[in-house]
Amino acid sequence: MSKQLLTAYELVGGYGKIDILHGVSLSVGVGEIVSVIGPNGAGKSTAFKTIVGFLRPRSGRVVFNGEEITGIRPDVVIQRGLAYVPQGRPVFPQMTVLENLEMGAYTVGEPARVAKALERAYELFPILFERRRQKAGTMSGGEQQMLAIGRALMTAPRLILLDEPSLGLAPKFVTLIFDKLMEMKRAGYTLMLVEQNAARALAIADRAYALELGRNRFEGPGTALLADPEVKRLYLGG
Ligand SMILES: Nc1ncnc2c1ncn2[C@@H]1O[C@H](COP(=O)(O)OP(=O)(O)OP(=O)(O)O)[C@@H](O)[C@H]1O
Ligand SMILES: [Mg+2]
Questions:
Q1: Are 180 and 171 in contact (CB under 8 A)?
Q2: What is the per-residue pLDDT across 95-110, written as a single tens digit (0 to 9) for each?
Q3: Percent of the residues in the chain that have a pLDDT greater than 90, as a whole number
Q4: Nearest-atom index, ligand 1, CA of 194
Q5: pLDDT value at position 2?
Q6: What is the rounded average pLDDT of the residues 156-178?
């Protein structure tokens, strides 16, 4: 088994006094794609927000790259190499593609490292180079998602968490985004994603988890979950 890069142990927590997570555990090894599936409201986004530090867990621990990051502020967590692309592909619509990418590197500072990161983002997403002077808000949903991912790459992260990267995209962009995730894996990135497109998310996953009502329900290799009759019935529409 590969070295664990992220381990979230038994996370309990949610919003204010209301617990949404009742003991969620997730782990990601170096070089893996890990997919998290589950019905609406299962706590998938809440789990990611808790890992990244937007929410403080009531109990449980998060260890990233050998260090405990439980309860640490998101900006500090990002500086340690954990990038996060929230649900809804947020970009700054009035800013150009290039400005959006540069915003992603505001913690980096050193111009040579920013230039290198920009080069890597453009290599993975040539469309962002072509559109670098265009206002982000005028691009299609799929292009905005690529920009949101490209921006996350600007810190040269060890691990990228992606919440619903294909949500609401036209079919050709859904295919493109999943192809890009595979390409990122081949380029050496480590990814954990939440996806409502469960079949595709399982197909590209080295390992996967299904969450339900704030708890782990299934876990295993992506292909094993894809073939599991119970998983099929519950999450893959029969
Ligand atoms: N900011 C918030 N304040 C209070 N409750 C919230 C907040 N965000 C989410 N919730 C609640 O937490 C529960 C889990 O939401 P979460 O967004 O984690 O689910 P999810 O698995 O990501 O679902 P989806 O597939 O719809 O994105 C839901 O019942 C939701 O209403
Ligand atoms: Mg969600």
A1: no
A2: 999 999 999 887 777 8
A3: 91
A4: 22
A5: 54
A6: 95
> Is the CB of 40 inside a 6 Å radius of any atom of ligand 1?
yes
Q: Is 46 in the pocket of ligand 1 (CB under 6 A)?
A: yes
CATH code: domain 1-81+160-238 is: 3.40.50.300
Q: How far is the CA of 40 from the centre of ligand 2 (A)?
A: 7
Which ligand 1 atom is the nearest neighbour of the CA of 43?
18
Cβ of 213 below 6 Å from ligand 1: no
Closest by CA position to 65, among listed 50, 83, 48:
83
Domain boundaries, the chain: 1-81+160-238, 89-157
Q: What is the mean pLDDT of residues 221-235?
A: 95
Cα–chain-centroid distance for residue 116?
Answer: 22
Q: Which residues keep their CB under 5 angstroms from ion ligand 2?
A: 44-45
What pTM does this model have?
0.95
